[in-house]
């Protein structure tokens, strides 16, 4: 029974280790030779890294094989797993389309090819036997040029049938030298009626209050309640929601343990700031959404009432959820109508 929503999942980190390893064995001789044993690969792929930048390097491994030709293969398995094992009713899948284009092409040709990538991803997520509402978030990237990032915004705005928002990803320490350009890009996105989120306040290198007014949701944002709780009333007034991805912070060395998130949840609930619990990179972590829930409950980071509030907030802040209620409420209404 599909009941949950994941608002923050990267296409590059969504492939579970077994599926990725099997693809290498069948289709990529070089990577197959590099990782001949599955368990060695799983350990390499899922072990914690020391920094966010080191962690992000793993995305390049997957991006290199997520081509227009192979995307349907990976996405079908992603949707199947999300529906069967995670009970997802709604999924926003984010990625940088430019990084799925042919690297042998020039910049203009790659920008043109991004349109094909978005359509391929959009059509591949329509899997009849696993009914789930999906939409794409296109990520601008801190390592890409203004020209490419603006083209990503235009692409998102031109394809509302596939895309619900834009994001900003990449190493957050690189934002500092691009702040004026990034603010222009977000202003342009809002002028084109796009919804917005962005990876800020994830680490202590990502503290950019200048970007907060442009965001409808905040990707991670845990450093706000941890280090700058004075900002929480502004977030509450704007109705912004934090996309908190628990396992990520131990995988990137941002937090020592998940228990440290208790401060994040407690301060946000006290200030009236919504949190959606998300996976970020479910495959890379080998941790699915229900296990994120269970880990937080087991460690007494949150209680069941807080968990339910976060689950409801996820649907309330979902950019493309078409209903006014979460699926549990809709199902309750159907069952009451049946038995009345």
TrEMBL record:
Entry's Gene Ontology BP terms: adenosine catabolic process; hypoxanthine salvage; inosine biosynthetic process
| UniProt entry tagged with the keyword Cell inner membrane | no
Q: Which CDD domains match?
A: ADA_AMPD
Q: Which UniProt keywords apply?
A: Hydrolase, Metal-binding, Zinc
Identify the residues that the record assigns to the Adenosine deaminase domain, covering every copy: 5-319
A Pfam family cross-referenced in the UniProt record is A_deaminase
EC number annotated for this UniProt entry: 3.5.4.4
Domain of life (superkingdom): Bacteria
Among InterPro entries, the record links this protein to:
A_deaminase_dom (IPR001365), Ado/ade_deaminase (IPR006330), Metal_Hydrolase (IPR032466)
Which GO molecular function entries does the Swiss-Prot or TrEMBL record give? Answer: adenosine deaminase activity; metal ion binding
The protein's required cofactor(s) are namely: Zn(2+)
Q: What is this protein called?
A: adenosine deaminase
Q: Does the keyword Mitochondrion apply?
A: no
Family indicated by similarity? Belongs to the metallo-dependent hydrolases superfamily. Adenosine and AMP deaminases family.
Q: Which GO terms describe its cellular component?
A: cytosol
């Amino acid at each position: 029974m599909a009941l949950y929503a994941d608002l923050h999942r990267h296409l590059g980190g969504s492939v579970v280790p077994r599926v990725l390893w099997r693809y290498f064995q069948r289709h990529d001789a070089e990577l197959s030779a590099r990782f001949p044993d599955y368990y060695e690969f799983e350990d390499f792929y899922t072990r914690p890294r020391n920094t966010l930048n080191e962690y992000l390097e793993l995305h390049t491994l997957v991006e290199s094989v997520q081509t227009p030709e192979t995307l349907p293969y990976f996405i079908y398995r992603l949707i199947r797993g999300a529906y069967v094992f995670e009970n997802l009713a709604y999924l926003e899948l984010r990625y940088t389309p430019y990084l799925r284009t042919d690297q042998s092409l020039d910049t203009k040709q790659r920008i043109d090819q991004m349109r094909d990538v978005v359509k391929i991803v959009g059509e591949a997520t329509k899997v009849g036997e696993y009914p789930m509402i999906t939409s794409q978030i296109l990520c601008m990237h801190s390592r890409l040029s203004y020209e490419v990032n603006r083209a990503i915004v235009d692409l998102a705005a031109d394809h509302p049938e596939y895309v619900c928002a834009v994001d900003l990803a990449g190493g957050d320490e690189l934002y500092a030298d691009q702040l004026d350009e990034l603010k222009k890009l977000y202003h342009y996105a809002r002028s084109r009626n796009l919804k917005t989120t962005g990876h800020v306040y994830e680490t202590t290198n990502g503290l950019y209050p200048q970007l907060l007014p442009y965001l409808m949701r905040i990707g991670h944002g845990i450093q706000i309640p941890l280090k700058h709780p004075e900002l929480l009333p502004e977030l509450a007034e704007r109705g912004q929601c934090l996309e908190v991805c628990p396992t990520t912070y131990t995988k990137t060395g941002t937090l020592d343990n998940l228990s440290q998130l208790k401060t994040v949840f407690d301060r946000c609930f006290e200030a009236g700031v919504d949190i959606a619990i998300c996976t970020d990179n479910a495959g890379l972590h080998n941790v699915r959404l229900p296990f994120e829930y269970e880990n937080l409950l087991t460690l007494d980071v949150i209680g069941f009432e807080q968990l339910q509030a976060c689950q409801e907030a996820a649907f309330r802040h979902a950019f493309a959820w078409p209903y006014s209620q979460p699926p549990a409420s809709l199902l309750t209404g159907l069952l009451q109508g049946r038995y009345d």
